Amino acid sequence: MRWINALTFHLFLRKQKDQFMKNLIHLSCLAIMFLLCACHSKKETQVKPVYTATTPLVESISLPQSYVANIASQRNIEVHSQQTGILQDVYVSEGQFVKAGQPLFRIAIVGANEEIAKAKAAAEQASIDLQNVTTLTDNKVLSNNAKRMATAKLKGAEADYQLAVLHKRLSLIRAPFSGILGRIPNKAGSLVEPSDLLTSLSDNSKVFAYFNISETDYLDFRLHPERFSQTPLQLVLANGDVFPASGKILDIGGQFDSSTGTIAVRAVFSNANNLLRNGQTGTIKLFIQKKNAILIPQEAVYELQDKKYVFVVDKNNIARQRAIKIDAEFTGAYVVSSGLQPTDRYLLDGIQKVNDGDKVRVSMVSPQASMKLDKLNAN
Fold it and tell me: With contact defined as beta carbons under 8 Å apart, do 128 and 198 qualify?
């Protein structure tokens, strides 16, 4: 009896052990399945991140067009002597501002005073001759032709006298207008002739800026003047500073340059502080009013083989790369001329991670917010 009980107890233990092993195997399988599901879920989460997307910002802007300009004084002349002589006196210095009528140089003319005295004496003699001939004509001794000849001789003598005085007056060279003097190559004591340059004189109270525009810009300016009238011209100096005074277009040239396809334009700028000088260069910025311009942040654009692209997200959330053309560039933004429509959704971030044809998850922001985000990222 005791033997039967022991056998029964042994069979019970063995049955419990087998059941425990089955339960352990089941639990292990469940644990492995749980880990596999967790890893798979984690992998799916990593593959599908959420990207930021938006639509283009559409608004009216002033689009700048830049042109290289040459600056010229309102009046710029060369000062020469009108006769040969010795440069006796120099009353001014290079770069000096002079007023109209101010003496600049004196030329010593050999025999100028003697020529005046000689001409004056000849005029007096001609006057006496005319008086004598007139008396004789009145007494019917001489004809009227003799009187007319004496009158003509007096007029010629008086003209010679006035010419001699003028030559003496021209020996003192004065400034024809107010302006700034240039270089003075000749010094006192030099022999000067009419062909010799004494100095140059520039009136810089106003300056002209000459630049060339394309045929397309010319047609826009003539056919759509309202686009240009609201904003004046800006002049950017060689150091990058903007000239404080604004300018306006005065006139356009009469013909196009066939070699460059451009036409000359002249603009005028007030130059009260005389900052601008003849011969300078700068850059003209002509602002064109553009309605319904399409703006996107620069960070949403990537470049491939000299072309610019964005990722456009279709209605099925498939990202497609699309080539765009840039009309102008601002700080942190592009003006798109073609390739994007105002209703197109495009990615703001993740452009280095997304491939063409990928299905993406996006979070939409407004166009205004996208431009602000780009400014924050740029800073």
Answer: no
Give pLDDT tens digits for 344-374.
Answer: 999 999 898 999 999 999 999 999 888 875 5
Q: Left, alpha or beta for 139 (phi > 0: left; psi -120 to 50: alpha)?
A: alpha
Per DSSP, the chain holds a count of helices (H) and strands (E) of 5, 19
Q: How far is CA 110 from CA 28, 50, 158, in A?
A: 127, 96, 21
Residues 119, 164: contact at Cβ < 8 Å? yes
SS3 179: strand
CA-nearest of 289, 364, 360 to 319 is 360
Other residues' Cβ atoms within 10 Å of the Cβ of residue 128: 11
Give the pTM.
0.63
Cα 157 from Cα 340, distance rounded (Å): 87
Give the separation between CA 221 and CA 251, rounded to whole angstroms: 12
